[in-house]
Amino acid sequence: MARVVSPFVILAFVFFVTAVTSNGPLQDFCVADLKSPVLVNGYPCKHPSSVSANDFYFGGLHLMGNTSNPFGSKVTPVYVTQLPGLNTLGIALARVDFAPWGINPPHTHPRATEIMTVLEGSLEVGFITSNPENRHITRVLCKGDVFVFPVNLVHYQRNNGNTNAIAISALSSQNPGVNPIANVIFGAKPDIAPDILAKTFQTTDEDVCNLQKKF
User: Which residues of 111-148 are buried (b: 16+ CB within 10 A; e: fewer)?
Assistant: First the structure.
């Protein structure tokens, strides 16, 4: 004879599964202890009694970043390493400055979606969908416009004007990470064998070696 499972047992099981899989906060905050030797997925918490207002504060986003570099751009991050109070909250911020015709070169954020708004100037932005479509989705943004870059897709920005441009980005992780495509490929340590990259990009070993020297 089949045994009937009590509805109360089923209800208790549902509550148990919900409790153990919940991603909700279990305390008011978890300010990152950046000096702790403990290795976890993220940062361990400082003791609440040692937390101060400075743990939730960052100053400096009003300052222009130094764009005197080959790309003509500068990212000023406000991630958990700059603002420990972001730990476990799943958000971050960044200011991006562009010299005239400067670029924020193609890159990915492996742990975050990015939403960007233009404060000054005009930007050409875009991202590429995953293989095999590899669709290039792009448009020009003006002051006040907003654009979103889905998590882990290759994307970029370019100032398409003769004046400086400024943008602010919000990201869906306190530690979004960044993988600049050229740096990852040509700046790997140790180097990826030139013949592998030459065959990948349908070029010569000499061209690859020259690119590796730049990164």
Answer: bbbbebebeebbbebbbbeeeeeeeeeeeebeeeeebe
Other Cβ atoms less than 10 A from the Cβ of 64: the count is: 11
**Which amino acid would we find at residue 213?**
K
Rg over alpha carbons for the chain, rounded to the nearest Å, is 23
User: CA dihedral in degrees (120, 56, 32, 60; nearest 10)?
Assistant: 40
Q: Contact, 187 vs 215, CB < 8 A?
A: yes
Closest alpha carbon to 123 in 87, 168, 170: 168
* Global pTM value: 0.86
pLDDT in tens, 76-85: 999 999 999 9
What three-state secondary structure class fits 152? Answer: coil
The rounded distance, in Å, linking the Cα atoms of 156 and 57 is 29
Burial bucket for residue 209 (CB in 10 Å: 0-12, 13-18, 19+): middle
For residue 21, pLDDT over 50 is answered with: no
Dihedral of CA atoms 186, 189, 193, 199 in degrees, nearest 10, equals -30
Q: What does residue 213 show for φ and ψ, rounded to 5 degrees?
A: -65, -25
